[in-house]
Design a protein that fits this description.
The complex is a heterodimer of chains A (about 300) and B (about 290). With about 300 residues, chain A is mostly helical. Chain A has 15 helices and one strand. Classes of the chains: A mainly alpha (about 300), B mainly alpha (about 290).
Chain lengths: ~300, ~290
């Protein structure tokens, strides 16, 4: 018994050609993937179909199909003029909160990640472990004490009450450290140092352009987290004109259960509230993958 | 790598914000939890009185709170493995799929995660609603009765479904990204040795996915302990959802409705400790120890 005989090899070759990976299993695969895709799209399809309906149509027509005539324009008009057009304000607030949060988070994570990646200092290991460990603590457990502190600082019902607590992002710091580790080689830093570049020049002029992908990823993740946040604004703002959209729609939803149902408005509002994220996700998709990949590999 | 004072300059902003909005609130919550709101004399406004561990003793004999903890533990035991299991299956399926719709599937699976939880809750709330639900319309058309999505046990499935809908795709994409990093040479070698697609998944892919599986599980355990928006929005849509459906709902009501902040802070701390213990248990069970590199 030495090398595989011609016969054996032929059997193997036959197996390989017979299998033709992917071909035989494709239909089961497509069925499984297709069914899950339908499940994922179901609520989105529902909201898309129903934004064209008025209140009676919502109840009288089949929920997963269109009904004529279309009331989309009427619904849009109601949504944007209701309570003096406060929906605009909520939309704007969401953009302000998410925008500020994304920018500030990215700045402090880029700086911090650089510090942890490129320098040694006393207590570095334990400090990083402490920060990472906080990922495990439910963030909602923090919201109540934050509310009380904000009250003391008289920051309740200001935009800072929503923005400031959102900009700590341990996972963002971790991601930036990973990006710095692989993005900016130590030799390059050494070379720059010999050429007389200072700490800041190395960070700002040489380093940052090399971790652009990381900056976009961290920015994107914190934008989404802030845009979707509900618990924090629910607790720290009570003035309607400071609500982000999530909170505003939730309040309308509560009202809607009373005597005046405003379903079409909420349905359309929900759709509009998710559009920016869906568009952002479709256009910047590769950065999401980048962040998830980095998280996954190093996990 | 070198020692330099410049390091402090770079980490200072993060540490500052971390201290102000993380460490200080945690410390403050611990401090608060040691006080009880009491009316010292009749006719006087209630005051916060130092009471040691009284709040903790109360929490552990508070049947409403214990019930909410039990709910979430049972919920997590069903929800997390189910969700990660589906995510794993789909990630393996997607990894084997070589057709033209790959990008479509990837995008669609990830889409639910990008939605605000509150909006996901709103939309599913409509899909569950007595009069609007297309499921009920179909059921009626087929001669069946209306389904009550909010009664007793059904409520847990209704909430579980929203959580599954939101997070399965996210977990799947994380696992999928990790699968993409495995060298295809490994599969080729196995295939030459006659391994089937299933064997490749079972003996090569899944073992290599272990760290990522663990990560997704820990995040899911943490996420489960924090469930708030889904029951909150179903509740505010006028459905009957018990006060103690999850610990977060219960502690929110304790603070906002009853105004008892010190007790709410105590509940928050207990919840955090339990989550911490569970996550630690997972890490340990999976053979991880100490700091991650």
């Amino acid at each position: 018994m030495t090398a595989p005989s011609v016969q054996q090899r032929e059997v193997r070759l036959m197996k390989r050609t017979r299998k033709r990976p992917g071909e035989r299993m494709n239909w089961t695969l497509i069925l499984v993937l297709g069914l899950f895709a339908i499940y994922c799209l179901l609520p989105l399809w529902w909201v898309f179909v129903n934004m064209f309906k008025d209140n009676p149509q919502l109840f009288s027509s089949f929920g997963l199909w269109f009904s004529s005539p279309s009331h989309l324009l009427e619904n849009l008009n109601t949504l944007f003029t209701r309570e003096d057009g406060i929906f605009w304000t909520w939309l704007r607030n969401s953009f302000i909160y998410a925008g500020f949060t994304a920018v500030l988070t990215t700045i402090i994570c880029a700086l911090g990640g650089y510090g942890f990646s490129k320098y040694n200092f006393a207590g570095k290991g334990p400090l990083f472990a402490l920060i990472l460990g906080t990922i495990m603590v439910p963030s909602t457990a923090l919201v109540l004490p934050i509310f009380l502190l904000m009250q003391k600082l008289e920051l309740i019902n200001t935009i800072w009450a929503v923005i400031l607590p959102s900009i700590i992002n341990p996972f963002g710091l971790y991601l930036m450290r990973v990006f710095w580790d692989s993005g900016l080689p130590d030799e390059l830093m050494e070379a720059a140092r010999i050429d007389g570049a200072g700490h800041w020049t190395i960070f700002w002029e040489i380093g940052l352009p090399l971790v652009r992908g990381g900056l976009v990823t961290v920015g994107l993740f914190s934008f989404v987290a802030s845009w979707n946040n509900f618990f924090l604004p629910l607790v720290v703002v009570s003035k309607t004109e400071l609500f982000p959209m999530t909170l505003g729609l939730s309040v309308w939803n509560t009202i809607s259960t009373g005597q005046t149902p405003i379903y079409p408005v909420i349905i359309l509002g929900s759709l509009i509230s998710i559009l920016p994220l869906v568009i952002g996700f479709l256009t910047l998709g590769r950065f999401w993958q980048g962040g998830l990949g980095a998280g996954a590999v190093k996990g | 790598m070198k020692n330099s004072r410049a390091a402090y300059f770079f980490i200072a902003p993060f540490i500052l914000v971390f201290t102000a909005f993380y460490l200080v609130p945690v410390g403050y919550a611990v401090y608060l939890s040691l006080f009880v709101r009491k009316r010292i004399a009749t006719g006087q406004a209630p005051q916060e009185v130092f009471s040691g561990l009284d709040n903790y003793a109360r929490a552990f004999s508070d049947s409403e709170f214990l019930r909410s903890l039990a709910n979430i533990v049972v919920f997590g035991v069903v929800q997390v493995p189910l969700m990660i299991g589906i995510a794993l299956l789909l990630a393996l399926a997607l990894d084997s799929y070589k057709g033209i719709a790959l990008k479509f599937f990837r995008t669609v699976f990830y889409l639910p995660y990008t939605l605000p939880t509150i909006i996901a809750g709103l939309l599913w709330g409509y899909l569950y609603s007595k009069d609007l639900s297309p499921f009920n319309q179909i059921s009626l058309a087929l001669g069946g009765g209306k389904i009550d999505f909010f009664s007793g046990l059904a409520l847990f499935f209704s909430i579980g479904n929203i959580v599954t809908w939101t997070w399965t795709g996210y977990n799947m994409i994380t696992l999928y990204a990790s699968l993409q990093n495995i060298s295809p040479d490994l599969y080729e070698a196995a295939r030459i040795d006659g391994a089937t697609g299933w064997q490749i998944s079972r003996f090569i892919k899944i073992p290599l996915l272990r760290p990522t599986l663990l990560l997704t599980m820990i995040f899911s355990v943490i996420g489960t302990s924090q469930i708030f928006s889904e029951p909150f929005v179903l509740r505010s849509s006028g459905n009957y959802v018990p006060d103690n459906i999850t610990p977060n709902i219960y502690l929110y009501l304790t603070a906002s409705r009853d105004g008892n902040f010190s007790y709410a802070a105590t509940l928050a701390i207990i919840l955090a400790l339990i989550t911490f213990a569970f996550s630690g248990f997972f890490l340990k069970a999976a053979g991880f120890s100490g700091e991650r590199k």
